[in-house]
Model the fold of this input.
Amino acid sequence: LEENQVGLYLVDSSGSHDANTVRATAEGTRSPIYWGIIVDAPPPDRIPQPGDFAVKRAAALQLATVSDVRGVQTVTVTNNEIESDNSAGGVGLQADGGYGVLDIDLTATNNFVRNWQRGIYVVQCSSNCSGAGYTAAIFRHNSITGNESGFNNGNAIGLGVEANENWWGSDTGPAAPDNPGGAGDALSGDAVYSPWLCAGTDSDPAPGFQPDAASLCGLAARLIFDEQPADAIENVTLSPQPAVRAVDAAGNPAPGFVGPVTLAIAPAGTASLAGQTTVMAARGTAVFGDVAFTDIAGGVALLASSPGLPPLSGVPLDVVPQTAELTVRVVVDGMAPGDGWSVTGAWGTAEIDAGGGEVLFADVRANRPQGVAVAAKSGYTARVECSDGSRGDTAVTLSLGYQTSTLCTFTMTAQPASVTVRKQVSGQAPTSTWRFAGDLGDFELPAGGGDLRFAPAAGVVQIAEEPKPGYDTAVACSNGAAGAQSALLALAPGENVSCTFAATEQPSGASLRKTVGLAPGECATSSVIAVPAGTTVYYCYTVTNSGDAPLATHALSDSKFGDIIPALAHPLAPGESLSTVDLGYVISDTAQATAETSAIWTATAPEGAQAQDSAAAAVNVLRPAIDASLTLLDDKGHCTTDPVVNVDEGSTLTFCLTIRNTGEVALNRHLVLIDELNLATILDRVIEPGVTEHFLASEIAGLGSITATATTTYTASITSTNAPAVANRHNVVYPAPELFVAVDRAALAVWVEPIVGAGQENRIFLPSVVR
Done:
C-alpha cells in the first residue's frame, strides 16, 4: 500500500494486519497529514478527508472488515513494514481510544516502523469521548527507527501501555526522560519500554521484523563490577582498575545508563582513595583509570554508588604497603669482633656474623624516610654508603622507591690497639740488655728495666723475650695473658694492654749421687753393695742441677780415685742430670775388703755462682758359708745328731735335713741332692747369718716313709745362694742373684740288722690204714 492518506484504517472492529508493506509520504499523498495504519477512529481533528480514490478505497476496506465482537475491538498488527521519508505530518501506526464504541485490545509485534514524523502514536480521548478505552496496548519486537518521534503515548497516560523489547535504533534504548543515555528514537509518555532489544539485526527472510529476542537491554536498576582488584598496594594504581556496569533488574545490560558512578571504601573511614573516584558512565559502564588506596588496610572493599541505584560492595581485599628491597652488607676491615653486628630499622632487628656478611630485607616500606643503623662497637669506626647515594656513619636515612633494590654497605674498620711492654728486674741485673722479638718486631730494654709503647693492628700478637741463664722470668698482661718468657695477646680493636716481663735472679745448686754396681755401662741404683772378694765393681757419679740457675762448668774428685774430671764445660739446666757414664767414663775397682769412698762435684753457673755437693758409696766384701747335717727324726719328732744309726730291717725311716748359715750373707735358695733317696729339690727360704733351719718330710716329701731294707750311707749335697737385690736387716745389698754361693755335704750311715723269724710247724698227713 503506497501513498495513501491512510494505508490501513480499522474503526471499531477487530482484525489482523499481517505482512503488509505500507508506504506514505507527504509528497505522495499530497496531504498535510497521513497515516500508515490507524486502529479505531481518530479524534475529530484527525479524521481523514478522502480526496481521492485511494482514501475512498481504504474507507471501503475497513467497512468490509467490521466485527461484531461485543465491547472489545481486538486488533493485531504483525510483520508489517510501515515506512515514510520523514516528511511532515506522517504517523506510522496510530491507535485512538475513547472515540469509538469499543475498547481497544491492541497487539503490535514484529513490525518495521521507520522514518515517520511520529512512528507510533497512542491517543486516548480527553473530551466528548465515547467512554471506551484500552484493555491492552502492547507493542513488542518492533523496529522503531529513523522517526522524529519514535513512540508517543503522552495523551494516553496511565493506561498500562507496554512498549518493551523493541528496537529503537540504538542499543542504548529510546531517548526518554528516564533514559538520559538513550540514543534511539524518542519516546514520550509513560509506556513501559524496558527492557528493549539490544540489536536491530533481522536475518530472517520472513516478512516483518524478526529480531534476536534473547538479546535484551534495559534501564539501569543496579550496578555490577565488571572488573575489580583482588588486592591492592597503597598509593599504587589499582590493577585492574574498577569497571562498574549498570544492568536492569533482570541483569540485562543498561547501555543507556550515563549517570555518575562514585567509588568509596567500605567500611567507611578505614582507608581513603586517590584519583578520580567519580566517573560518568558511557553506554552503561563506568571505567576508572587512576584509582588507588592511600592507606594500608585489611578486609576493605570498594563501594560503588550512583544516584537512584542501590550501592554495590565489591569483594573484600587487603591493601598492603608499597615495598622495596634493602640489602644491608657489613664489611669488616681488620680483626672481626667477638660477636655479631646488629642491624636495626623500622622493620626490626637482624644479626650479621662478626666477620661480615649481608642480610636482605624484602618488604621494606617504600616512599617514606626510614633509618637503618648498625650498632656501634668499641674499637671500630663505621662508614656507610648506599647504592642510592646516601651516606652516613653508623646510620643512614633512606626513602626507598617502590619496587627498588638498594644496597647499603657498612664498612667497620678496626682501630689499632695499644701495647706497653715493661721490664722489671729483681736481684742483680745482668750485664747485657733484655732482647725481645715477635709481632712487634725486634727491640731491647735496658738491663735494669724499662718500657716501650706500641700501636699494633688488632689481632693476635706474640711478644717473646730472649731468655737469660740464671733468671726466672714471668709475663703478666693486663688482659689476663701470661707466660714464662712470652705472651700471646688477642688484641681487640682499640684495646689498651700492658705486659710486664719480670726477671728474678735464680739461686744455683747441685746434688751428687755416687752409686756402685756390677755393670760397666750403666749407673747402679744403690750406693751400697755386697760382693764376694775379688769381684769387680763399677762406680757412677750423677750430678743433678738442683738450683734454679743453669750450670755451665763441672769438676769431680774422689777420695779413692783422685781428680776424675778436672774441668768440663757442659750446660746443665735446672732439674737436668749428668753422669760419668753419660760422659763415657768407666771407673772400676776389684773389691778385696769392705771399704767406703766419697766424692765431691763442683759446678759453676754462667754468671759465676758456684754449687758443690758430696756423696759416698760403700762396698761390703762378705763371705758365704753353710754347715749341713742329715739325721733321722726320733719318735718324739726331734732331729737326732748321730751320723751313724742302727735300725732293724723293715723299719720306717724319716730324715731331718739341717742347714746352718755360718757365713756373712743371707742365703735364700737351697739346692738339695740325695741320690740314695732319688731326691733333687730346691728350697726357697731365707737363712740369715747364724741362723739354723730344719727341713722335714712335711716340706720335702722324699725325706719321709722310707723302709730300711739294707745298710746304706745317705749323702746330701747342699748348694745355697743369695736372693737377687734384696736388702737384709744388716743393710747389705746383693746386686745380683747367686752372686754368693755356699756348698756343703752331709752323710748319714744307716745300719740295718736282719730279724730272725719264729719256727714253723709243718705237718705231713699219711694215707690212712684201712681197718
